[in-house]
Design brief:
Blueprint: E1 7-11, H1 20-24, E2 28-30, E3 38-46, E4 50-57, E5 63-68, E6 77-78, E7 84-85, H2 90-113, H3 127-135, H4 139-142, E8 163-170, E9 191-198, H5 207-219, E10 222-224, H6 229-237, E11 249-251
Parallel strand pairs: 1-2
Antiparallel strand pairs: 3-4, 4-5, 5-9, 6-7, 8-9, 10-11
Organism: Ophiocordyceps unilateralis (Zombie-ant fungus)
InterPro entries: Kinase-like_dom_sf (IPR011009)
Protein name: Protein kinase domain-containing protein
Amino acid sequence: MVTPQFITEDASDRSVSTSWKDFKSPKLRQISQPSNRIEWLEYLGSGEDGIVFKVRFGQEQPVAMKIFWLTQRPKPDIVPGGRTLRRYWAFEKECINLAIIEKIEAAMQKAEADPNQEIVLTIPTSRQDAIRNLRAFSDEARLSPIRPQKSLCPPTFPNITACFGWTKIKRRDIPRLRPPVWNDVDDDVDWHWAIIYEFVPPMEQDLKIGQAHLDFFYLTGFSLEPFSMEAFLEMLQTGLGLRVASGQKESMIYFEGDFFNRGFCP
């Protein structure tokens, strides 16, 4: 199977590139030196995209492992006129979003450490504005002397659930649950993609913090999808709480949103 273009085998403990070229081609990195021994501690929840367990690699601290149902990209739909329409693939969307968020955080750290660098944003009212805001985090924009006439500084990077990278998991190693929890899978492969997150114990939710997260992602070029009650409860089950789930937002470079609707020309 060909490795998808939105992941890389580079370890997640390496430095993060923040050029505009790399923002336009984000790749989620692999977890650093994972142990072959996995201790399955607890089933946390499941949903349309996959299933989540609390696990431990070797002697490390517990983490949350999100295992995706579909290992291969779904076949495209045929629309009137014979055109093809690429279908939603949860693993792709989540990897791209996480890789972009990682670059945003790295860019903010670089700007804080260098007085010659500055990140300048504007209030986005279109898809093009959102992309322009995302570009503001790139090396080229941070070092540019040209600034928008109406601008604002980016908010503090939010305390969101940390991502440690992607990995693979054999289907036979996934614990069997009673009653069964399963969804459509690719029968011609015997493994699944997984993303490893910081494990966040259930806690009381602070709506002000949640709103700050939403504001941050709005300013940094994401279109936020509305949450259903089922999705919200799933987030609580998996320990994400109001820390915005990576599958519930879309970068305007890759995904068309309802609010930002202008085309993107790299």
